[in-house]
Amino acid sequence: MSSLVERLRVRSDKRPRYTLDESDDDFPPRGGNGKGKDRDGDPPVKQIEREDAKEDACRKCGLSDNLVSCTTCTYAFHRKCLVPCLNITSDKWSCPECVSPLTEMEKILDCETKVASEETSSSESGSNKKPVKQYLIKWKGLSHIHCTWVSEDEYFEAAKIHPRLKTRLNNFNRQFESTDKSDDDYVPIRPEWTTVDRVLASRKNSSGEREYYVKWKELSYDECTWESESDISVFQPQIERYNEILSRRKKSTDKSKNADRAMRHAEGTPEFLTG
Known about the structure:
Layout: E1 68-69, E2 76-77, E3 105-114, E4 132-139, E5 148-151, H1 152-161, H2 164-177, E6 196-204, E7 210-216, E8 225-228, H3 236-262, H4 271-274
Antiparallel strand pairs: 1-2, 3-4, 4-5, 6-7, 7-8
């Protein structure tokens, strides 16, 4: 999978023709999935011992600090190393080795076939390179800037465990095949959907990084998402505008507090009123 934070912003301004796939809620929640307590309240299963798990090190990058441990095996990860990069708030969470990230899929947006992946060694001969089909995935609870490509092989592996994924793929393929890709109106993601319209709030995450609650252009307020400052750093005017509004509100609040302090309760009636 590869990040599309920059790539998605340069897509042409065309209206999509695909039919939005309805989100499925029948997948078990991440971190549950039958790996912890089941629906009958049975005790959690024994944690899987991963022989290649390194103590106090991320499974993906090998570095330490601020790790999130899997509750169903002995792997640990950084939040930023996960695809999709999730803001994990639950104590019970299962890593991608135990539960496919595709259980967090909202919909399939697009597909393409490449002659070879970016990871393919340049030493390989052209005759050995095989076409690789991949799908553009929109993740639940994440904005379009976090959409990622998932290979067909990886998707099929997840579908073996979660058959509903296969049904959703078949539905997408039927829609995709009936769409005229040469039509000027066809595009999977509009650039506006990856453009910050307004910043509504801010907070610091568990790692101390500033996050902003973002309203995206042409999308409704129920599609607002929390974004790390680094992911929307190119939208400094919108961030500065939010900070200015926040500063004015603080000054207004401070003035109001000072005015309240200046008003004191008078004991009795002032002499100039009684004569």
